[in-house]
Amino acid sequence: MSSTLLQVGVVIPALTALRLGAHLAGASELLLHDQQLTTPLTSYSQLQEGLYLFNHGIDPYNGGTVRHSPLLLALFSSILPSSRDVAATLWALCDAIAAWALVQTWRARQNVSSSSRDGLVAAMYLLNPYIFLPTLALSTSSLENALLLLAVMFASQKKAAASLLSLAFLSHLSPNALLLLPPLVLILLTNPHSHLASPQKISFNAKKVAPLAAEFLLYTGVLTAASTLVAGSWRWIPQTWGTWFTLPDLTPNVGLWWYFFTEMFDHFRSFFLVVFSIHLLIYVAPLCIKFQHDPLYALFLLTGIIGAFKSYPTLADPGLFLSMTSIFPETFPYLRFPIVTSLLHLHSALLLPLFHHLWLTQGTGNANFYYASTLVFACSNGAAILDALWAGMRIAIGKDVDGYAVDQE
Amino acid sequence: MLPLTLFHYLLVALLGTFVRSSATQEDAARQFFARNGTSSHTNNWAVLVCTSRYWFNYRHMANALSMYRTIKRLGIPDSNIILMLADDASCNARNKFPGAVYANPGKHLDLYGENVEVDYRGRVEPSVSRSKRLLSDENSNIFIFMTGHGGNDFLKFQDNEEISSHDIADAFEQMYQKKRYNEIFFMVDTCQANSLYSQLYSPNILATGSSKVGENSYSHSSDKDLGVAVIDAYTHSVLEFLEGINKTSHATLQDLFGSIDPAKINSHPGVRSDLFQRPLDNTLITDFFGGVSQVEVADVAADDELEAEPEQQAFIPPHRQDPLLSC
Amino acid sequence: MDEGPPPAGRSWKNTLQKLRGRFKPEKNAAEVRVRRRRAMIQKLHQRLPFLKVLLFLVGYLWMVAIPYPDLGRTTYIDENALQPAQVSTYWDWADVHNADRYLDDLERLGDRNASSAELSEFVKTEFQKSGLPAATQKYTFSVGSTNVTGVNAYAVSSSPRASGNEAIVISASWIRRHEGGPTELNLRGVSAILALAKYLKGHSMWAKDLVFVVSDGYLDGMQAWLGSYHGSKQNNLQAEELLYASGVIWNALSIDYACHSFSHLGVFHEGLNGRLPNQDLINSFERISRFTGGVPVVLYDHAKNVVRHVGYQGPGRPSGIHGLFHPYRIDAFTIYAVCAQGPHGFHALGRVVESTLRTMNNLLERLHASFFFYILTDATYFNKIGSYLPSAILVSVGMMFHGLDIWVMSGWRLEEQPSEKVSSSSQERGWVSRQRPVLHALTIMMATHILGALVFGSLSLDNWQTLAPILFAVVAVVPLAALLLRSRHHSETAPVSTVLKALNLCFASTIISVISVLNFSLALLLAIALGIPLAISTPSSRLVQYPAYILLAAGWLLFLPEQTQSALWNWEVLSVWFAPVAAVVTLLPM
Q1: What is the CA radius of gyration of chain B?
Q2: For residues C387 and C63, what is the distance between their CA atoms, to the nearest angstrom?
Q3: Counting C-beta atoms within 10 Å of the first and last residue's C-beta, which end of chain C has fewer, N or C?
Q4: Which pLDDT score, from 0 to 100, does residue C101 have?
Q5: Which residues of C touch A357 (CB under 8 A)?
Q6: What is the DSSP letter of B168?
Q7: Helix axes of A84-110 and A8-24: crossing angle, nearest 10 degrees
Q8: C84: distance to nearest CA of chain B, Å?
Q9: How far apart are CA A75 and CA A143, in angstroms?
Q10: B195 CA: distance to closest CA in chain C (Å)
Q11: Distance (Å, rounded) from C-alpha B189 to C-alpha B146?
Q12: What are the TM regions of this chain, as residue ranges (chain C) (predicted)?
């Protein structure tokens, strides 16, 4: 019974339908402006605002509200209608595609055409509340997640062009994704199979890196040119990409940046903006080197780090990391403190909406309450990343042996 | 950015842009005015600052306004007074008596009723007019009065920024180096007020505060119709004494300090006179509170021109706040 | 040290050596660390049982200690702007006479059982006679198969010199607050509102608009009025739009005054879903009443009572119509005239209200966030958050430790090793790790929550009386049925019941600590209801235990009909989430 229930062909349509049902029941209305699910860069209402201006011949990047890519505006205004119901369908489909891509990645990693775990992998993605709720709130971070998983899937299937195009489009929407290029290229050059248990030095043809990088640059250039054509000027760049690094909009979100920069004295601001932005770079090389034998795992860890530390995260970003754990079941027995991490996540998942409510709805708390809950959330994300990191390395040593202990140097 | 604007607030007011060169003949003047006390000043200025906003700080505005009324009565003209009120209590919607500010529970005297010239209500703009600047010179005696909410070594400005005792000391030193005063009498009414003059280091400054470090300053009385306290105890005591003074009075600052009873005001006022050159019992109250017109005696043989007080000529129509119109 | 300080050169070298030793120990550093860590864990593990008991014990004792004044402190005013009891009041015997006249009229209307429409029309007309813009508002709640209808009357007195962006509401409901007992008309409260409206309008110092509301019914009228005022939608409510509006309501007070005279003024402050108003407001009122009105203030209507507070706050029901203001971020409380043979009446009440309004009028900004977390043990005594919160948190931490302990233990199994010597078998036993059926346990937890949701979803005001026994039977039987389905337990995996218990404890602990910030009383009740029972639950099928748990989980269906009904009413009419939460969260059998 459970095997038929857990088949991909059942899980994905059923859970996609569940999303549509929730939308029709009015969940979107309720969640559309929730600051934990959308940020100024991913919010649906701001996308609508941009579309309105765009369709009426007003430069949407003149004011300070629209921070979506011109390509999204063009896509929604010319190809796709912007009705709320159609959008909900589209977002649900995006999640379905993302889940399907995750399943495909899992299959490619196992080198099988189908497995009994497929349905579970899809369900882990589609049932994750951190993924589910932003989709209902029509946050464009759902689209970003789908793009990321597509890029990973194509890379696992050795479809370099498709993979790089997906990543180029993703980093066009959210420049942080650029950090994922090195592990993605490594997957393309080696293979996505699990080598965590038997680490070895990587061997690949280094000459192939340059063409791939060039191809990526080409796609990025084309997308940038297309955006400029659509927007009519270069003004979209500071309004979209620039926002990620200069943080002009301090609307609260689940990340760590907004409160820090609210409290910051002006003359330190630029310094810390640089520190916060550059800080993300330092993880790429160590992770790619340490996990050179399994670049997919390096990419997975980087996704978690970006999700925890990006400037405008929604719940979907850490959610993607959590859901991606489902394709690495071999690490589960080696996770360091899984119960502690789960409980931390349980706490933060309850505290975030609660303190948000206390601060902004009920008025009995203040911003510090919500900030405290984002700190708990950051801790739980950090704990999850550390767990995964530990497990990824620990697995190589094998099972516990009596009288021996594994220690971290 | 924060400290800079704060600094401007005081400095622009205190320093101004006016630089005046004059050949003083101190000896002649000193001899001439010896019978009027020992001060050698020829003009008087006053800076009265209420640093608090909001309705419940009514009393701070009343403190400054009562002091304003007194020094005007004793002869310092509006042109020589810089009055800073952080808020407009008279026009507050909660004021049961619109357009009036009272400093006593019986509401006998409307401090706002007469000609009140408030120079500053909010921030200082770069192009502030000359009538709002402290155009003092090396013969000026300056009375500086500050009231508001403060603490150890600081005074809150408009619930937003703070001025520290170091800021004040440095501002006075700058004035000293630029020869912008003859003597300064610095009076503060706030909690732990005595800490505010602790850092002063420039000569010829006499300072007094309403309470010791660690002590609060208290309000004196509140009006049951207004629903707020109308004046602070220390300022009230000072004013009580000054009410008995007129322009020709020979009362000294020693008398003033002696008249304040710590038991009555619930705090211990302090006086700092180590920087001050003259004995307090030889310093007339009117040296600071009064606009006793003293003139410089120019050497007629050397120079025919008799210098009058230039400030009076540089009179610019005051920025007058008409209470009835503005409420 | 005994030999005195060593020469400087040597001590320097020593320090260097020590430092070097710290960074490059001669022994294997990793080994040292592992040993140290193991020793620490061992120590912790040895003391865990004691620690757990201690946590529970201290937590529960702390709860018992909350009402004692030694734990709290006297109230004080935090906000400078309030300036309570600083004004002279001008409410006079002439105004008292006005109030008496209104009362005569109202009593006449009451005697001939006038309809809601008539009553509200009268109030509206009287407001208008005083020169205020006034209107009425009709509303209908459809609750189950019955409809609750009524008519509110209200008037807006604009601030003479301010912009009218902010407002204060003074309100009275037709029916005075009651707890299940017979309803009583709040005639004096309403006449006080009418007289106050006439009187307060004549003053010039209002920086905020004054809105006078006489709401119909007990809670329903105000719920409808506030909903319309703030433009919020409620599916089962049909209400007319308001003709007159004002600014953002910051504060509200409601008057509950039914008997001829009163000896004390009581304060009721608990709002919907356990929100409390800012304590400064209550403290100000207490001082004003004492100093300006000469009326002593009590908490509620008779005595200090933390139990009563928990009774209101825990289930999230409002202790008066003031509670309905709270969801809109309005700090409100009810002034309750405690019936007595004198000595106070309209005269004192009017003065206290006038002065309280002056204090509210003084507010320049929202009251400070730190003053929303308190437990009043008396009108002048309160517990700060730090002196009551730890009680529930300690129990919650104890549960968490217990849960984690069970979790760790469930991953291991004592296995007898094939050994030669039988005598020292205990020495030969070894710990063997085993798998934990987490997914299985989570499924059961999920199923119980869904069961809870279903039970709650199927209940409504119409059918709860018939459905309750059936549902109780279902809830009682389902776990038994589940027992039959339970697969056989393998020795390689931990028993499901152990893992389930561990996860349940951890989950319940999380719920308690999270809710304690939102609604402390509820957290307290949960800590009492879940703490020990979950901690001592065992998978054994002893005859006594099972019914006890079932009773705890679902007994409310059978044995607390009144509470069930009022919780349902509150949910349907006022969106109080106690009922669904109780149903969904606490149904954790086995």
Answers
A1: 19
A2: 10
A3: N
A4: 93
A5: 518
A6: H
A7: 160
A8: 8
A9: 13
A10: 23
A11: 6
A12: 48-68, 388-408, 438-461, 467-485, 505-532, 544-561, 568-588
**pLDDT band for position A168 (50/70/90)?**
very high
User: Which of A160, A159, A157, A177 minimizes the C-alpha distance to A169?
Assistant: A177
| Contact by Cβ (8 Å): C190, C217 | no
Helix axis angle, C438-458 to C496-518, nearest 10°:
50
Q: How many Å separate Cα C170 from the centre of its chain? A: 24
Number of Cα atoms under 13 Å in the Cβ half of residue C379: 22
Contact C151, C116 (CB under 8 A): yes
User: What confidence score (pLDDT) does residue B313 get?
Assistant: 38
Q: Which of A219, A56, A202, A238 is nearest to A151 (CA)?
A: A219
C413 and C434 Cβ atoms separated by less than 8 Å: yes
**Residues belonging to chain A:** 409
Domain ranges of chain C: 47-66+388-413+428-585, 76-379
| B324, pLDDT greater than 50 | no
Count of domains for chain A: 1
Integer Cα distance of C135 and C125 in angstroms: 9
- DSSP E strand stretches across C144-201: 146-157, 166-173
Specify the pLDDT at position A30: 83
Q: Is C171 strand, coil or helix?
A: strand
From the list C407, C430, C514, which residue is nearest A339 (CB)? C407
A64 phi/psi in degrees, rounded to 5:
-110, 10
pLDDT at position B323 over 80: no
User: Looking at the complex, does the CB of residue C364 fall below 8 Å from at least one CB of chain B?
Assistant: yes
Positions of B annotated as catalytic residues are: 149, 191
Question: What string of DSSP letters covers C362-431?
Answer: T--SPPPGGGG-EEESSSSEEEEHHHHHHHHHHHHHHHHHHHHHHHHHHTEEEE----S-STTHHHH-EE
pLDDT at position C589 is 40
Output b/e per residue, C61-94; b: 16+ Cβ within 10 A. Answer: ebbeebbeeebbeebebebebbbbbbbebebeee
| Residue in C80, C88, C205 closest to B94 by CB | C205
Chain C nearest-CA residue for B228: C86
Give yes or no for residue C199 having a pLDDT over 90: yes
Range of the domain at A315: 2-327
Q: What CATH class is the domain C76-379? A: alpha beta
Complex-level ipTM? 0.83
Is A226 part of any domain? yes
**Contact partners, residue A394, CB within 8 Å, separation at least 6:** A334, A336, A406
DSSP letter assigned to residue C344: B
- Across the A/C interface, how many CB contacts are shorter than 8 Å? 48
Residue B1, chain A, CB below 8 Å: the answer is yes
List CB contacts of C21: < 8 A, sequence separation 6 or more.
none
- Compute how many other C-beta atoms are within 10 angstroms of the C-beta atom of residue B167: 21
- C498: tokens are 């152990």
Contacts of C361 in chain B (CB under 8 A): 94
Bridge partner residues of C149 (DSSP): C140
Q: How far is A103 from chain C (nearest CA, A)?
A: 20
Q: Does A267 touch chain B (CB under 8 A)?
A: yes
Binning pLDDT at 50, 70 and 90, where does residue C317 land?
Answer: confident
Domain B38-326 has CATH 3.30.70.360: no
Residue of A nearest to C436 (CA): A333
- On the 0-12 / 13-18 / 19+ scale of CB atoms within 10 A, C288 is buried
User: C579 with C571: CB under 8 angstroms?
Assistant: yes
pLDDT band at residue B295, thresholds of 50, 70 and 90?
low
Q: Half-sphere exposure of C345 toward its Cβ, with a 13 Å CA cutoff?
A: 16
Domain boundaries, chain B: 38-326
